[in-house]
Design goal:
Elements (H helix, E strand, L loop, with lengths): L5 H4 L7 E5 L6 H8 L8 E3 L17 H14 L2 E5 L3 H9 L4 E4 L1 H4 L2 H10 L7 E4 L6 H13 L5 E5 L17 H9 L5 E3 L1 H5 L5 H10 L4 E7 L13 E2 H10 L12 H39 L7 H17 L4 H33 L1
Parallel strand pairs: 1-2, 1-8, 2-3, 3-4, 4-5, 5-6, 6-7, 7-8, 8-9
Helix pairs in contact: 6-7, 12-14, 13-14
């Protein structure tokens, strides 16, 4: 894909690009009070116009009326605005009200039928489009969505990393799985990559650290949900920062040089070591999650009188995982050795579960 970088469509772009504003445009007053203090530090103002929720009954956006409020503020203050679109009707209304940048949400990216429908609606439209990662950690769906829009003639594309849903307990609302967006960037180096720390963290206390991590990984920009008073926000209150918090987060960012220089190579070496430390922590967290799942399997096997070791499953793992490793540029032989260690620990963990259950049974008897 021959994608136009941010320099091609973001006037006076200076890294990082900052996209900020409320989760939802709730009222004309709320929108103005939220964005006025951050205009000087924001390249683009964001705001949800349509907010379909996981379950009905909560605030779901004000619809087209909100676009009128946005345009009134744009006329007064002068800024670019972006919002999420999920249907061809949304696109039609957004273009009618001169929205400057559109984005595609995670729940839309996950569905190729929806993406195709939106790509058709955008044919012939020259507008920047940002595509969030799909809800679940599937790089192919993310790439597929970007490619569909590109084939529809949209070349001003960008990707938004907002984390991925899992069923495991985690300090993040949507764990970042940083390697997935980095793989995307590796394949499409000209594709602007923007981090959404609000949806990754789910808590405004995590926004600063996630933002810095994104800068450490050389992301092109940040999308941060910002409300004049998050405590009264009608959607995603916990993950929004107030307008002045945003300014503090941006001013405290340590922006890294993209390449080594004679003056900074020692500090860059330390940065790499810090990133390795962080990767090791995340690796251990992933192993801990795997072991908790293994424990659940052990309990299920015991309850259903199924043996711990199953040859068919063993063969399946040792066939599929090295193939996965090749796609990730990992040595398959190294992967097999890691899997052997993991399997040994898994058998040990399930054996402990079996023995623990049997001991409890003996006590009851």
């Amino acid at each position: 894909m021959q994608i136009d970088g941010l320099e091609g469509w973001a006037k006076d772009y200076i890294k990082p690009m900052v996209i900020a504003g409320p989760c939802s445009v709730e009222s004309e007053e709320q929108f103005r009070k939220s964005v006025k203090p951050i205009l000087e530090k924001s390249d683009i103002i964001r705001g949800g116009i349509w907010k379909p929720r996981t379950r009905p009954g909560s605030f779901e956006g004000v619809g087209e009326e909100g676009l009128k409020w946005v345009n009134a503020a744009k006329d007064e203050f002068g800024f670019k605005f972006t919002t999420e679109v999920a249907t061809p009707e949304h696109i039609e209304l957004a273009l009618k009200h001169k929205v400057d940048v559109l984005w595609i949400g995670a729940r839309t990216t996950v569905n190729p039928f929806n993406v195709s429908e939106l790509a058709t609606a955008l044919q012939g439209v020259d507008i920047p489009l940002l595509v969030k990662n799909p809800v679940h950690p599937e790089l192919s769906l993310w790439k597929g969505a970007l490619e569909r829009f590109y084939k529809a003639g949209i070349t001003k594309l960008g990707a938004i990393h907002r984390g991925f849903h899992t069923y495991d307990k985690n300090k993040y609302r949507n764990p970042p799985f940083w390697q997935i967006p980095l793989d995307l960037k590796s394949e499409f180096p000209d594709l602007p990559l923007i981090c959404d720390p609000s949806h990754i963290g789910g808590s405004n206390q995590l926004i600063a650290d996630i933002s810095q991590k994104a800068m450490d990984l050389n992301y092109d920009g940040l999308m941060i949900e910002t409300h004049y008073n998050p405590k009264v926000a009608l959607s995603d209150a916990a993950q929004q920062v107030d307008s002045y918090q945003l300014l503090d987060i941006l001013s405290d960012l340590n922006l890294r040089d993209e390449r080594f220089t004679d003056l900074n190579h020692l500090s860059q070496l330390e940065l790499i070591r810090q990133q390795i430390d962080q990767a090791d922590r995340e690796l251990l967290e992933a192993i801990a999650i795997r072991m908790s799942l293994v424990e659940k399997i052990g309990e299920y096997k015991k309850e259903n009188n199924v043996a711990i070791f199953q040859v068919g499953r063993w063969k399946e793992i040792f066939k599929s995982r090295p193939e996965w490793a090749k796609k990730m540029n990992l040595d398959p032989d190294f992967t097999v050795e890691v899997l052997r260690l993991l399997h040994q620990q898994s058998v040990k963990k399930q054996t402990e579960v079996f023995n623990k259950v049997e001991a409890k049974t003996d006590l009851n008897e």
